[in-house]
Amino acid sequence: MANSDGSAGASAHRQHERRRANDEARLRRDWGRFGGLAVALTPERQSTRAWSTGAAGEERVGRELDRVASSHVRVAHDRRIRGTRANIDHLVVTGDGVWVIDAKKYKGRPTLRVDGGILRPRIERLFVGSRDQTKLVDGVVWQMQKIEDVVDVPVLGALCFVDADWPLLGGAFSVCGVEVLWPKKIASRVSTPVTGAVDVESTWATLIAAFPAA
């Protein structure tokens, strides 16, 4: 699409292929003349398969974002953060600011848990099913800070869960300022800017230069 940039999930796909090739080479080396049979009979390692799963999640979110991309909603996928091994799954520039969107293909229901309150500091945590996944929120906040270092506009963050157990009504919430939602919901959010105060084209150009395709 003319108004989007990069390929969603591209770097995750490359990482999956590299890891799978390394796994197969290790099996062939260890099993000698039976290496081909070992490769055929050995299931893919979970740590390797996770990269393929992650790429599929990024692609699905990317398709929803590309669907709403326009001259007023600029979309970029799989952007490299210079000086690190990390990347940003999706960047969206609208009249309201810059969205940093991290895609996750997880099972289970995302929920917000709050500890403390009136007499103790309020602590918000993200759970997916029974597992504490607050570290995912921390990751988005770190990415947001990298964007804030480059552009002087509002920066918004989102965790977009693909295939999660979302309820039929409601479901979206925020944790420590990061929105937690699903692919169609984030597409709806970014495609309805309210203020129009941000210069989309100049902000887009700055970000594309600062965060090249991974």
What is the topological layout?
Layout: E1 4-5, H1 10-31, H2 35-41, H3 46-68, E2 74-80, E3 87-94, E4 97-105, E5 110-115, E6 123-128, E7 131-132, H4 134-148, E8 155-162, E9 173-175, E10 178-181, H5 183-190, H6 200-210
Parallel strand pairs: 1-2, 4-8, 8-10
Antiparallel strand pairs: 2-3, 3-4, 5-6, 6-7, 9-10
Helix pairs in contact: 1-2, 1-3, 3-5
In words, what does this structure look like?
The chain has 214 residues and is an alpha/beta fold. The chain has one domain. The chain is built from six helices and ten strands; from the N terminus they run βαααββββββαβββαα. The chain has helices spanning 10-31, 35-41, 46-68, 134-148, 183-190, 200-210, and strands at 4-5, 74-80, 87-94, 97-105, 110-115, 123-128, 131-132, 155-162, 173-175, 178-181. It has a seven-stranded mixed sheet with strand order 1-2-3-4-8-10-9, sandwiched between helices. Helix 1 (10-31) crosses helix 2 (35-41) and helix 1 (10-31) runs antiparallel to helix 3. It is globular.
